[in-house]
Design goal:
Elements (H helix, E strand, L loop, with lengths): L2 H21 L3 H13 L3 E6 L13 E6 L2 E5 L5 H10 L12 E3 L5 H4 L2 H10 L6 E5 L3 H11 L1 H9 L11 E5 L3 E5 L4 E6 L9 E6 L4 E4 L7 H8 L4 E8 L17 H11 L3 H11 L3 E9 L5 H9 L5 E4 L7
Parallel strand pairs: 3-4, 4-5, 5-6, 10-11, 11-12, 12-13
Antiparallel strand pairs: 1-2, 2-3, 7-8, 8-9, 9-10
Length: about 325
């Protein structure tokens, strides 16, 4: 185990102990805790910062925006529910399984949606009664319908086979979106904007406006300076995908001969994703207070330090490379 992981595990253990101790203090402590949740500022918690490469340290793309004890999940990569459970164990009470009720999908690539069956069914199995709200591009409704069909025997047994499952929490309420305001409640207003992600017909980024934060999530996108500048325009946090380096992804987990040549791979990356150098230009124009990187793709021998260095060629603001379970 690396020293970073040891520190993170120690922090999780300490926070879990503190949460247990607080629960023993009784109703007065719980009332005070509820008040502190109401006053707490908006948080971004990364539930997965990876991409299709099966990295055990980086689950599939997913994050949660937490406002006043409510969780709003964006994308549902592999491991989303388990990472939420880890955050809950570390004291992030908004990420209890029964509170995973709303998810926004930027697009329907598999690495962003393989956790959807888990997000739909596991919280229900352990007690969620609310249907899962899914807000995403055209095709989302078909995807959720097929997930439910694929698990129809499981659902039937849990409902009728003696397991006592509730009759609502396994359902999905899907809203297929267009650009503009797509969601609003007492905590947050969410707007969607189109991004160009290669040959996908529909891919979106999102802007979340809460009582104390403005947060823009690029989704997977080729460099789009005008789009991101307009969406952010001095926002508190810009969360953006990025790649750096040249050549192919050096996959240390699976031996694979890529059918793409280096030249074809470079063409693909430029049409589907944003280079670190381009992101520096974008961030300079959008001027976020904090730039958070996720879905970070390293080509060839590129490093995270190189990613930040390339961004800093044009952007002199704060830049952080997000890791799973990081909170900002």
């Amino acid at each position: 185990m690396t020293s970073v992981n040891m520190c993170r595990q120690t922090l999780i253990s300490v926070l879990a102990f503190a949460a247990t101790a607080l629960s023993s203090l009784g109703p007065v402590a719980h009332a005070a805790d509820t008040a502190s949740v109401e006053k707490a500022g908006t948080k971004v918690i990364f539930l997965g910062t990876g991409y299709p490469r099966p990295d055990p340290e980086a689950m599939g793309p997913s994050l949660a925006i937490v406002v006043r004890g409510h969780a709003y999940v964006v994308d549902a990569g592999v491991g989303v529910v388990r990472r939420a459970a880890a955050a809950f164990a570390a004291g992030e009470t908004a990420l209890s399984s029964d509170n995973l009720k709303t998810v926004f999908l930027t697009h329907l690539h598999s690495d962003h949606t393989l956790g959807l069956p888990d997000l739909l069914l596991t919280p229900w199995v352990v007690g969620r009664k609310a249907p899962l709200k899914v807000i995403g591009p055209k095709g989302s409704a078909t995807m959720l319908k097929n997930i439910s069909k694929a698990w129809d025997q499981d659902i039937h047994i849990r409902l009728e086979g003696g397991e006592g499952g509730n009759k609502t929490g396994y359902k999905a309420e899907v809203t297929e979106i267009k650009p503009g305001k797509v969601y609003q409640d007492e905590n947050v207003t969410v707007s969607a904007f189109r991004v160009g992600h290669g040959t996908w017909h529909e891919a979106f980024g999102f802007r979340f406006d809460t009582p104390d934060k403005s947060i823009v999530i690029s989704g997977d996108t080729a460099a789009a300076p005008d789009v991101i500048q307009k969406a952010c325009n001095g926002c508190d946090i810009l969360i953006h995908e990025v790649f750096a380096g040249q050549g192919v992804i050096e996959n240390v987990f699976v031996k694979k001969d890529f059918t793409h040549s280096e030249a074809n791979w470079a063409t693909y990356m430029s049409k589907f994703h944003t280079s670190a150098k381009d992101l520096g230009v974008i961030a300079k124009a959008a001027h976020p207070k904090l730039l958070l990187l996720h879905h970070t793709i390293l080509l060839g021998k590129a490093t995270e330090q190189e990613v930040v260095r390339d961004i800093k060629l044009n952007f002199d603001g704060r830049v952080e490379v997000a890791k799973d379970l990081d909170a900002f």
